Amino acid sequence: MAYIGVDLGGTKISVAKITGNTCENGTRSLIPNEGSENEILDFIKNAISKSIDKDVEAIGIGVPSLVDQKLGIVYDVQNIPSWKKVFLKDFLENHFKIPVFVNNDANCFSLGELYFGNRKKLDSFVGLTIGTGIAGGIVINKKLYNGSNSGAGEFGMLPYLDSNFENYCSGQFFQKIKGIAGEKIFSKAKAGDDDALALYSTFGMHLGNLIIQVLYTFDPETIILGGSVSKAYIYFKSGIQLSLKQFAYQNSVSNLKIILSSDPDISVKGAAALCY
């Protein structure tokens, strides 16, 4: 059986045909996120058309927003201003004439790790995707916990300092708070720049404070980090560890495993897994 997986981010879209554990006909492109609702719908439709063929039985799509899973309506999509209430399922089903399943993108990331990741034997874990924003997907007893509106795990929206965790624990920290592109900081850190390394340490401390909230609320055995910013984990790991020293139950910290996702296509595969 073959399915289309779509990972719709705030700035990029990835699409692939998933057969078993294999990605085929994969494409990645920037989203015209300042476009109108219909312009972006047409863009997604065209992106899917490049990967779909007659063998595909259904489409799964992860979006950075709250979702009515039954009706496939997405609300207030992060970083796409025109998407306030979009009937995404109806639009795609009317065009492609096959079933479409919609969920939150962080949930798809965790679903991908559950079905396809190297840690498939885990019973319970939290997946954190760190990119343009930060959000989590929660797996309990080998089942994805969605919440009522696919919003379980939206840790980034918790109040923190002068705003929320998303401003301090995602790529927004470098751009909004410090006024420097994340890619530039990453390059400087790889070159051993002291200021860049110090900035990553500060970022890690903020992320560690978010992880503390995860520990207090869900006490997972493992946290899996994914998304573009996670590639710099080696530079902010020490900052996380410093913040975790503040956690009240240090035995839990000793038992906690923080690992990196190893599959760059895991979110697309997880979106396809919505079709199972």
Task: Report what the structure shows.
With 276 residues, the chain is an alpha/beta fold. A hairpin with a 4-residue loop joins strand 5 and strand 6. The longest helix is centred in the last third of the chain and has 25 residues. The mean pLDDT is 94.
List the helices and strands and how they pair.
Blueprint: E1 2-8, E2 12-19, E3 22-30, H1 37-49, E4 56-63, E5 66-68, E6 73-75, E7 85-87, H2 88-96, E8 100-104, H3 105-116, E9 125-130, E10 134-140, E11 143-145, E12 159-160, E13 163-164, H4 165-168, H5 172-177, H6 182-190, H7 194-218, E14 222-226, H8 233-244, H9 250-255, E15 257-260, H10 266-273
Helix pairs in contact: 3-10, 6-7, 7-8
Radius of gyration: 18 Å
User: How much β-strand is present in the residues?
Assistant: 25-35%
Instruction: Give the low-confidence spans.
Output: none
H/E element sequence: EEEHEEEEHEHEEEEEHHHHEHHEH
* Largest sheet: number of strands, sense, barrel closure: 5 strands, mixed
Rough outline = globular
Mean pLDDT: 94
Q: How far apart lie the N and C ends? A: 10 Å
Strand order of the largest sheet: 3-2-1-4-8
Tally of helical segments? 10
Secondary-structure-derived class: alpha/beta
Tell me the total number of β-strands. Answer: 15
Helix percent band: 25-40%
